[in-house]
Amino acid sequence: MQVDGRPYRTIWLNDDGETVEIIDQTKLPHRFEIARLETMEDAAIAIKDMLVRGAPLIGATAAYGMALAARSDPSNEALSAAYDHLHATRPTAINLRWALDEMMQALSPLSPTERPARAYERAAEIADEDVEINRGIGRAGLPIIEAICAGKRPGETVNILTHCNAGWLATVDWGPATAPIYMAHEAGIPVHVWVDETRPRNQGASLTAWELGHHGVPHTVIADNTGGHLMQHGMVDMVIVGTDRTTASGDVCNKIGTYLKALAARDNSVPFYVGLPSPTIDFRVHDGVKEIPIEQRSGEEVAKITGRTASGDIETVTIVPEKSPVANYAFDVTPARLVTGLVTERGVLAANREAIAAAFPERVQAAA
């Protein structure tokens, strides 16, 4: 997508053919900086400390992390250790394990001398595949926005609410929730996006708003608790969010607060869609509430906030009482019954086991 007229991906191989570069998302929206990953440990830190975030991008970064590991030591023992180290960085996003499994499947049959070149090749393929998956989600979701627009008076805006960042910054490009929005915008459909701030890390306010603004899409940042009010007053035509893990039965695990948006949408008859790249489907999990591990991150993310001061300095301040305990559950699960449709690269699916299995039979077979 575009940053002030220049196309970018979120991750790419450097010109030296060995190191990897990423957009450092911890610096956004106040600074646009590129970070270089030179080792597998660099990739692990980038994932754990959220220089990269979003399930698809985490997967692509892990794949390049395995390539960096193979460049350093392509032995079975070293690759196994790299797999375990990268897998431990984030427990919720299923793309991480999927990408690591793909890399091991590609590298294990080869001799150590053959592995580095194949590792870089497979990592690049995973990144390119992610771009095409998200482009497919955009094509599948665009008719939904077109249909809403067709039901409005000429020139009326289609208002879309999203939570967290499931834009191109969460993927290699396009984004599962924003691809239909970007395509609608480029097709001349008047769209406007309500952007939840998404506490505690403010991925909506700092990332979604940043990327929409730089691409020229009209949007408004709102407090997390505003969505229900907007829906009650007819100011939201549809909700679309992303997912870090989706069960075989259609339960959706996404950033904390997503479940509350789905409840408000159901109460106000607002369609609630999920942009779903197929690698985020976990066919080994069936009950999302009971089976998906929910990451609990540092309480400092809730207790502190970073922003730009009036003097232009970037500072972090504490916003809760010094001795107050803080809990930080990073995700919640939205039951399939609250999901209007899963927007995938193979079309819009009902959120149930039968529809998902029919659309991705090869994934079902692989998980058996």
From TrEMBL:
UniProt site (Transition state stabilizer): 164
Pfam families: IF-2B
Active site (record annotation): 244
Reaction(s) this enzyme catalyzes, per UniProt: 5-deoxy-alpha-D-ribose 1-phosphate = 5-deoxy-D-ribulose 1-phosphate; 5-(methylsulfanyl)-alpha-D-ribose 1-phosphate = 5-(methylsulfanyl)-D-ribulose 1-phosphate
EC assignment: 5.3.1.23
Keywords for the protein's UniProt record, in alphabetical order: Amino-acid biosynthesis, Isomerase, Methionine biosynthesis
List of residues binding substrate: 53-55, 90, 203, 254-255
GO BP field: L-methionine salvage from methylthioadenosine
Pathway: Amino-acid biosynthesis; L-methionine biosynthesis via salvage pathway; L-methionine from S-methyl-5-thio-alpha-D-ribose 1-phosphate: step 1/6
One Gene Ontology term of the molecular function aspect: S-methyl-5-thioribose-1-phosphate isomerase activity
Physiological role: Catalyzes the interconversion of methylthioribose-1-phosphate (MTR-1-P) into methylthioribulose-1-phosphate (MTRu-1-P). Also catalyzes the interconversion of 5-deoxyribose 1-phosphate and 5-deoxyribulose 1-phosphate. Part of a bifunctional DHAP-shunt salvage pathway for SAM by-products.
Similarity annotation: Belongs to the EIF-2B alpha/beta/delta subunits family. MtnA subfamily.
UniProt-recorded name of the protein: Methylthioribose-1-phosphate isomerase
The species this protein was found in: Afifella marina DSM 2698
